[in-house]
Amino acid sequence: VVDWRMQLVAINNFQPQEVWAKVEFDLAKKLKEVRLRPIRTVPKELLSDSVQWHVLQPKLVTLQVSNTTILGQFVDVASYTLPGGSFTESMDDELVVIGDFLTKKSSTWRIIVKTYHNAAHMESRKGIDNTDIFYSKFIYVGLKVFFMEPNIAMDSLQNLHILHNLSSLSNEFPQSLEGRSQLTINNITNINTSHPGYPERKSIQAQIERIEALYNEQSVLIQRESKRQLLEAKDLREKCEAEVTLIKKRIGESCGTIQGPKKLMGVWGDVLAFARIHATVHERESICDHVRSDYSSFLAGTYLEKGLKLAQFESIDGLNIALNLRFQMVNDDFGSDDSSSPIDAVAGLSANPNEGELLENSQCKKCRSEWHMRGPTCRLCRLEKDLRNYESKLTDPVISCVLASLGRWVKDFSNNGRKNHPAMISMKLPDRVELFFKLQAAKKNEIKIAKLAWKANLELYSAIDELNQCKQSMRLSYPGEDVMQLTEQERQLIVEPIDIAVLTMDYEAKQAMALSALRQQKDTLRYLKNQSIERREQNMVMEKSQSNNEIASGQEHDEEGQICPLCLATFDGERAVLACGHVFHYSPCLESLISRGSGHSIACPLRCAIKTKRDDVMIATDRRHDDGSRVMRDISGSWGTKVDRLVSDVIDVIERGEKGIIFSQWDDMLFILEEALTANKVEYVRPKSMKKIGEALSRFRFGRCPILLLNVKNGAEGLTLVEATNVFMMEPLLHCGLDLQAINRIHRIGQTRKTHVYRYIVEDTIEMKIDKLRMERQENHFEDDVEEQAKHGMKAGGIDGGLSEAELRDLLV
To answer: At what angle do helices 201-251 and 429-470 cross, to 10 degrees?
Structure first.
């Protein structure tokens, strides 16, 4: 039940507003449909003589789903108009079903009520009598919502492939399908035929078009939403540029006298010219000192090649020359009025790409590298490269550091009683500097949203390509055809006539295995449903017994339904579930059943006809599985619980556009992580020695590499890595000081974003004790207290920080 309660103060000002409720699941779910029932009466627990209630009946209801492509924002999935009744009607409506939609799995959904049936009735009551003008009344809006998952999650792309092949057969050989049983055809395609043995081709084509439309709909909605956000960001940037143009017109020609590139002859040329002409010798020296100090702080822990560093300077003229050289080196976009950029090209991408663009994308050697395509790079790949180049020019870290320092000097100068300086007033330096940084922030935000829009377009192209791939069919090789001239993907669709018999047997065997697995999963689903019904009935009996003061009888009933039929003892741990659905203790009851059998199968002692293979026994437990070990996405390879979960978390971080650092105290673990990240196509950098750490850090800070691997013994000190916002600790450390140092590489002065720390600890192992000890020491500042260490007789140091005899005993016992 989702409901909303609002207080109505003045009915004359009543304006019904949209209301929404967010629904979050522990695991991502793919919904089949949503069933709704409007609540037309106020719940009994809210009724009171002192409170008046008015029930608004929902009319237009929209279902939305969260999407990671647009940073977790919601997109519409489906909308439905609920039936209404008279204002005084109170009835139990039939469920209204919202279906006919396809979405990817998501753990976050949202229900929005946009309009109401009886809002006009509230309007008609305005001013009927004086008591209605101002009184205390409450509004109630309620819905019963049922989120339905499919029992069998059919892959829509596989279904499309089957329908396409069946449509091709029915078009080319219409008589070949005559005489086929109605049951067989319906089992394959779920098609409702008008007469036995002959499927209607129009019905098949209609289902194909429906699947294609629904599959594309979500990608199109995301593309349009991202384009709308990009246009808003672009409009904001253009407004800032218009303000810059307006202020330039007001002050006329620049009074700067320092020569340099056109891009520097704007506000920063005027700032340097003002400092050179109007500042005192001491103030000019102070400017240079502040810039050098800020630049030195920036270089602390930052590796830059010699040719990329800022040239040395001792005066305002030297600073001007150094900036000019830097601008020329990186061809930076700072202060430029030229708004032409790849962002315009991204904003111009259509939700309906033409056939030429789709063909180019499907053959792209970069986009479709997993299909071993050898075609030229497509338009989207070229746009991605242009976006990265544009971003690198706009966000050069050296220029950003110097300009930020100059901006602070202008602000301090104007705040120290010098803002009325005639030249400062005529040149409007404080306003222009503030506007410059405002424009740069707008440009950076525009780039961020443009990258999301680019990704949304790539997913749209990929969705269309997947649909086209599903409609490809296998064929026999032509006489004399050289299949080696085809791509690997095309060769997979070629069948040699001599292989038909072998392939037929292979596919029939796979079909039999799949049907067997399907039957087993159906049995499991049926058992779980029955268990759910029984438990629900037991809870109802318990509640009824407690209300009648019959708690004892309720406990007896509960125990009766939770006993092992073999040993007659209650279940208190893991339970073994046979294929027939009966449950026994995993130990020792299952072991006893195995010893009685032949060794290959288990016979149910309750005389069920179904026998269970030893490998098919399922384990049921009351223990929750959302303890952090569950991987939320499919990953390549199996690397163990820790590494699998880490790779899943890392991919989530990268999709949010963030960077992270992975710390481990074992080189072997770092080697495993390298293999796992490589298998999942995650870019990373790992310095293998201190000589190469500068190059690795430079790639991490300024390159495309989002993940840095470091040994906590070597990489936890002396580095500033505020570009990252996520820390991954693969093992708990006894030395809490070293643990804090590793985290403080990111969470330190200069970090403007929230820092997230991920710790991976295996439950019921010594790691739990180590992490508990670390937290105790960290809370008590133990490693900072030399006297306390001496009191415990601690002399050892290093990675463990030293352990007392009692602590060692607690860890190892």
So the answer is: 170
Q: Residue with structure tokens 């059998």?
A: 597
Listed in order, strand segments (DSSP E) in 30-91 are: 33-38, 52-55, 60-67, 73-81
Written as one letter, the residue type at 701 is R
Cβ-based neighbour number of residue 614 at 10 Å: 12
Q: What's the gap between Cα 210 and its chain centre?
A: 28
Residue-level pLDDT at 584: 85
Asked whether the beta carbons of 2 and 142 are under 8 A apart, the reply is yes
Task: List alpha helices for 377-421, DSSP H.
Answer: 379-394, 397-413
At residue 728, the pLDDT reads: 93
Distance from C-alpha of 182 to C-alpha of 169, rounded to nearest angstrom:
17
Adjacency order of strands within the sheet including 583-585: 583-585, 575-577, 618-620
- Do 640 and 669 touch, CB atoms closer than 8 A? no
| pLDDT value for 780 | 60
Q: Chain-centre distance of CA 454, in angstroms?
A: 16
The conformation of residue 328, written as its DSSP 8-state character, comes to H
Helix pair 281-299, 316-330: axis angle to 10 deg: 40
Check: CB of residue 642 under 8 Å from CB of residue 758. Answer: no
Which of 359, 389, 355, 353 lies closest to 376 in space, CA to CA? 359
The answer to whether residue 401 scores a pLDDT higher than 50 is: yes
How many C-beta neighbours within 10 Å does residue 525 have?
12
Which of these, 452, 247, 252, lies nearest to 343 by C-alpha position?
Answer: 452
Instruction: Say how far apart CA 663 and CA 671 lie, in whole Å.
Output: 12
122: pLDDT confidence band, cut at 50, 70 and 90? low
Q: What residues form DSSP beta bridges with 603?
A: 611
Longest dimension (CA), the chain: 102
Q: For residue 556, give both structure tokens.
A: 């007896």
Residue 705: Cβ-neighbour burial (10 angstroms; 0-12, 13-18, 19+): middle
pLDDT greater at residue 320 or residue 621: 320
Contact 204, 189 (CB under 8 A): yes
How much is the pLDDT for 112? 92
The larger pLDDT score, comparing residue 486 to residue 600, is at 486
List the beta bridge partners of residue 20.
Answer: 112
Q: Contact 51/11 with Cβ under 8 angstroms?
A: no
Cβ–Cβ < 8 Å for 32, 148: yes
Cβ atoms within 10 Å of 402's Cβ, excluding its own: 22
- What confidence score (pLDDT) does residue 727 get? 93
| Residue among 219, 213, 38 at smallest CA distance from 111 | 38
351, 326 Cβ separation under 8 angstroms: no
329-361 CB burial, b ≥16 within 10 A, e <16: ebebbbbbeeeebbbebbbebeeebeeebeebb
Q: Concatenate the DSSP letters of all residues of 129-181 into one string.
A: SGGGTS--EEEEEEEEEEEE--SS---HHHHHHHHHHHHHHHHH-GGGGTT--
**Contact criterion met (CB below 8 Å) for 139 and 8:** yes
CB 569 within 8 A of CB 559: no
Sign of CA dihedral 289, 290, 293, 294: negative
Q: In the chain, what percentage of residues exceed pLDDT 70? A: 77
pLDDT per residue over 510-569, tens digit each? 888 888 888 877 777 777 777 777 777 777 777 666 666 544 444 444 444 467 888 878
Burial class (CB in 10 A: 0-12, 13-18, 19+), 606: exposed
Answer for the pair 710, 687: CB distance below 8 angstroms, yes or no.
yes
| pLDDT single digits (tens) 729-784 | 999 887 777 888 888 888 877 777 888 899 998 887 888 888 888 777 766 654 44
Spatial distance between the Cα atoms of 595 and 198, rounded to a whole number of angstroms: 54
Residue 104 CB partners (closer than 8 Å, separation 6+): 30, 218
Which of 693, 755, 690, 692 lies closest to 722, judged by CA? Answer: 755
Phi-psi region of 599 (alpha: psi -120 to 50; beta: other; left: phi over 0): left
Do 445 and 343 contact (CB within 8 A), yes or no? no
Q: How far is CA 447 from CA 19, 391, 404, in A?
A: 33, 7, 20
